[in-house]
Amino acid sequence: MDSNQNPSDPPPPTTTSLPPLTPRTIGRLKPPSKIAPMSVKPLSFTPKGDQNVDPDQLLTAEDFKVHTVPQKRKTEAPPPTSRNTRLKTDSSSSSSIYSGSVTARSTRTTTVTRNPPTRASTTRAPTKPTTTTTTTRSTTLKSKPSTMAKPVSKPAKPTPKDSDEPVKKKRPAWDVKGRLQDLEEYHHQTQSQLLDSQSQIANMTDELSRSRSTIDELIQFRQTLENQVHVKEAENSTFAQQVTELRAELLGVEKKYKDEIALLISRHAREIEEREGEIGRLKKVQEGLDGELRIAKEENITLRSTISTQSALSVSLESECRANKLLLEQTESTLRDRETRIQTIEQQLDASRAAVQALEAKVREEETVRRRLHNTIQELKGNIRVFCRVRPPLDAEKSEKPDEVLSHISFAEGDEQVIELRQAVESASGQKTVEKTYPFSFDRVFPPTTTQPQVFEEISQLVQSALDGYNVCIFAYGQTGSGKTFTMEGPSHALDDPDTMGMIPRAVHQIFDTATTLEHKGWTYEMEAQYLEIYNETIRDLIGGKEGKHEIKHLGSTTVVTDVVTVKVETPTQVHEVLRKASHNRAVAATNCNERSSRSHSVFTLRLKGTNPLTSESSSGTLNLIDLAGSERLSSSGSTGDRLRETQAINKSLSCLGDVISALSSGDKHVPYRNSRLTYLLQNSLGGNSKTLMFVNVSPLSGSFGETLCSLRFATKVNSCMIGSAKRVK
Ligand SMILES: Nc1ncnc2c1ncn2[C@@H]1O[C@H](COP(=O)(O)OP(=O)(O)OP(=O)(O)O)[C@@H](O)[C@H]1O
């Protein structure tokens, strides 16, 4: 009994019944089977000082109720949202159910109180003396009174005022015997209560030990449940992780499928468009076909009518056919006769073919003979020939110096080989002026009216010799401005003008034309071109544009100049390109060297290699077309310094050319080719098999009389080198 408690003022019981245990709750918790539901054995209380304890007053299990006082937690737990939480709550509640108030860790405080023994207080009260105190005992299963329930009820202490029992009178002091009697009686009661109490204590001790073992088992069971909770929590976290992973995977898959679906949708949209387009096209085709079908049906109708017409015709045709069969038989017999005749004709044709082949062979032989004869004629004409050409006066010359134009030159009528210069000189006495004439005769004299094609006609035979395997050299010699470049190349602005183009492009055209013609006779040609310039005894490549150390080398009958560009040409156009490039390079040099073009020799070389597998012939010829430097005399040029050196170099090379030609004509053993670059370059083209033609170009102006006379004299010297080919009229 709590000493602080007033027995007359029992506290109101805060008894709360536990929620009933449902089979579901029990099944989930699975308590150990050996744990029996908690029971409290009947306790018997003997109130202090009460000797006569009624057995009915003994406490039974029914007198106890489990009171649960919910303790407010510091922090309210969140409402259960998951299985774990639910489990935890269940576990907690189960813990409270099984352990009740016996564990300090319980979240609820459970008190076990005894119902007030109303029977004892009502039925036994009259038998008990007023001094007897009915004790209400509060029992807790654990010794912690702070958390345990306090006694909830207590019988009211009977007061003498309220009691109906007779109150014992206090014995007088002198009643020693009576008082002794009372003491003995009290002693007996006390003895017997003591014995009862001892036996009850023993029972309670047993009960306590059983309760402890039950508590241990409950603790163990709680531990097991906690372990299960941990396991479930671990599983739960694993599940949560798996759920997260699955969600991520699901997102990835969803995205992937979304993309695929989008792709499929766009593809399907495209396909639908294509299909629609296809359907459109097919519809058009169908429309076209429908149209065709209509036409075909119409045609069909027409044809049916035609067939019916034709059927009628057929009958008449059949009769015609019979007639024709007869005709055919006659024709077949005619045909057989004709076949016989055709065979005869074919035999005659074979014979003719053989004759043609024989004739072609003869033509080839004759071509060979023609070549031989042609070159014999060329040789008879002379290996060095000289053509004189007088250029027409320029418009400016005609207007500025009309008196000077052609006043000193005359041509013999009917004789195309004679030219005569006239000069008025004083007589020996000096009293009168007489006209002195200088007649010259050359292989051909071209007056100013002669056109380029007419000039070329005269040299075309010579060009042909190059294709036949001869080395051909064509020079243009004369003073500056006499028309050398015009003769050899033509006007610089119209290299391929058929009316004005010069000897070089014309020669190239003829060579290509003749080579094409000769292909029918079995000849094929390879051609290559080079274009050089000799200025002050220095060689410059007019195609490659290099000036400097070019050396001339003679390898047998072939002349090679080191480090110059040689272009393989297969068409006249390619040759024109070469000429254009050379003309450009020459013009560039001219701006640097002041009228250099007239102070240098330009040499265009075309090498021709021909083969004829049919006749097993081959040829190797060279065509050199040379525009020589102006031939002004030193005295008349009045040159000094560089110009003097140029003139000296020009005169030297021109005089060397004359010396070489002279030595060749006189059959000298030593020919001074090496005396100048020009003659050394042309070594293989001067003499031997070579054929040389010199144009001597003459100015129409009388002011150039002296230069013209010199040029004609030089040309005459060259011309006279050949036996019987030059004539000089004195
Ligand atoms: N047969 C011709 N018909 C028309 N014009 C011509 C003829 N010959 C020359 N000429 C003209 O005469 C001028 C001088 O001719 P060209 O330049 O050919 O002389 P050149 O002797 O080559 O001079 P250079 O030595 O300076 O080169 C040019 O304007 C040219 O067009």
From TrEMBL:
It holds the Pfam family Kinesin. Keywords: ATP-binding, Coiled coil, Cytoplasm, Cytoskeleton, Microtubule, Motor protein, Nucleotide-binding. It is found in: Cytoplasm, Cytoskeleton. The lineage of its organism: Eukaryota, Fungi, Fungi incertae sedis, Chytridiomycota, Chytridiomycota incertae sedis. GO terms for biological process: cytoplasmic microtubule organization; establishment or maintenance of microtubule cytoskeleton polarity; karyogamy involved in conjugation with cellular fusion; meiotic centromere clustering; meiotic spindle formation (spindle phase two); microtubule anchoring at mitotic spindle pole body; microtubule bundle formation; minus-end directed microtubule sliding. InterPro entries: Kinesin-like_fam, Kinesin_motor_CS, Kinesin_motor_dom, Kinesin_motor_dom_sf, P-loop_NTPase. Residues 159-173 have a biased composition (Basic and acidic residues). Residues 328-383 form a coiled coil. Residues 1-173 are annotated as: Disordered. GO terms for molecular function: ATP binding; microtubule binding; minus-end-directed microtubule motor activity. One of its GO terms (cellular component) is meiotic spindle pole. This is Kinesin-like protein. Its main location: cytoplasm. It comes from Spizellomyces punctatus (strain DAOM BR117). Residues 91-147 have a biased composition (Low complexity). It comes from the Eukaryota. The keyword DNA damage does not apply. PANTHER family: KINESIN-LIKE PROTEIN KLP-3, PROTEIN CLARET SEGREGATIONAL. Belongs to the TRAFAC class myosin-kinesin ATPase superfamily. Kinesin family. KIN-14 subfamily. Residues 383-721 form the Kinesin motor domain. ATP binds at residues 478-485.
